[in-house]
Automatic annotation (TrEMBL):
Disulfide bonds join 25-40. It is found in: Secreted, Cell wall; Secreted, Extracellular space, Apoplast. This is Germin-like protein. GO terms for cellular component: apoplast. One of its GO terms (molecular function) is manganese ion binding.
Amino acid sequence: MMIFPISFIFFLTLSSSYASVQDFCVADYTAPQGPAGYSCKIPANITVDDFVYTGLGVAANTSNINNVGITPAFSAQFPGLNGLGLSLLRADFAVGGVSPIHVHRGASELILVVEGTIIAGFIDSNNKVYLKSLKKGDTMILPQGLLHFQKNGGDTPALLFAAFNSENPGVQLLEIALFQSDFPTELIAQTTLLDTAQIKKLKGLLGGTN
C-alpha cells in the first residue's frame, strides 16, 4: 500500500480549497457593486443556472429611432461572466437599421454576421476610416476605444452577434452624449460646427435640454 506524506495530503487539501474559491466569481446582484465589478456570490448559493444564459435566442424589438434591437449578455445579465473578461450581445437590424457611432472604452468587439448584410467600420486615432460590407459568416474586429458603427446594408433584416474581451465593455453613443444630455446647445455648436437649429431639433427628438 502506498503511503503519502502528511505534507503532500495537506498540499492537496489546500489546493482543492483554494481552487474552489478562485475558479470563478459569480455575480451577487444583492450585494454592493464596486469599481472591480460585482461581489462574489456565496459558493453554496451558486447553481448551474448561473453559468447559462438563454436570452440571445430571441429577436429583440427593433421599433425604435435606430431600428435596431440589442440583447446584451454582459455580467449584469449573465452572473457567471463576472470576472472572466468576456461577453456577448445580439443585435437585430430591421431594414434601414443603424447602430450609431459609439465607443467601448473597456473592450474590443468582434462581430459575426449571421443573417443579411452589415456595413461596419471604425475610425482610428489618425482619422483613417476602415469600412467594409459584410455578409453572412463574415467577421470583423473593432479595436477597443475607437469610434465605430454598424448598419443594415441590405433590403432584408440582418442579425449579428458581437463578442467582447470584457464582461462589462461599456458603451457611449455619440448621438446620446450630445443630444440626450444637458450639454448647452451653443457649446455643441461651437465645439462641433453643427448648426444650432439642427442641434435643437435633435435634442427635441432625443430628449436633451439646454
